[in-house]
Amino acid sequence: xxxxxxxxxxxxxxxxxxxxxxxxxxxxxxxxxxxxxxxxxxxxxxxxxxxxxxxxxxxxxxxxxxxxxxxxxxxxxxxxxxxxxxxxxxxxxxxxxxxxxxxxxxxxxxxxxxxxxxxxxxxxxxxxxxxxxxxxxxxxxxxxxxxxxxxxxxxxxxxxxxxxxxxxxxxxxxxxxxxxxxxxxxxxxxxxxxxxxxxxxxxxxxxxxxxxxxxxxxxxxxxxxxxxxxxxxxxxxxxxxxxxxxxxxxxxxxxxxxxxxxxxxxxxxx
Length: 270
Known about the structure:
- The protein is 86% helix and 0% strand.
- By secondary structure, the chain is mainly α.
- The radius of gyration is 23 Å and the shape is globular.
C-alpha cells in the first residue's frame, strides 16, 4: 500500500492535482480577505467617516496625475485600431459603419480596459508600494497602537477615489479615442469624411452602453484601489517585500478587471 501511495505521489496527475488544490485554496483565501476588507470600508463609508481632505488628495492623485499617460495609451490604441479597420471596411463597402464600429469598441471594451491597465500600472502600483513601505517600516503598527483604523485612514479614501474618479477618466479617454480614431480613419482610407464618421458613431451607440461603461469603470476603479491597498497592507520582509507586494498587486488587479469585465459582458450582452 505504501509503495502504491509513493508511486501515485510521483505521477504528473497527482502533482497537478496538488498544485490545482493549492491555487484554489489561495484564491478562496484572497477572495475572502478582499471581501472582508471591502465590507470594512463600506462600514466606515455608511457611517460617514470619510475624510474629505484625504479623499480629495487621493482623487487628485488618481485622476489628475494619471490622466496624461491614460489618454496617451487609449488614443494610441484607437489610432492603431482605426488604421487596421478603416481600409478593410472601405474595401468591403462599409465606410458608413466605421464610426459605429469604433464607438462600440471603445465604449464597450477598449476604452475601459485600456484605462484600467494604465491606472493599474501607474496608480495601483504606487498605492501598493506606498502601503507596503508603511507596513515594513511599522507605520501601520503605530497607527493601530494609536487606535487609528487603517481601513478608515488608508483604505477608505483610496477605494472611494477609485470608485468615483474612474468614470470621469474613462469618459475623457474614450471620447479622445473616438476622435483620434476618426482622424486616423480619414487619413487611412479614402472617401471617409468627418461627417460620415460622426454620423455613424451615433447610429448604434445608445445611452445603455454609456451607462454600462460608467458602472463598469467605477467597479474597475474600486477593485484596483482595494486590491492594491490590500497587497501593500499585507507586505512582509523589508524592501524585498515591497517589491513582491507591488508585483502581486499589479498581477491581481489585471486578473480582477478581466474577470469583472467578463461578468459584465455575460450579464449585459449575452
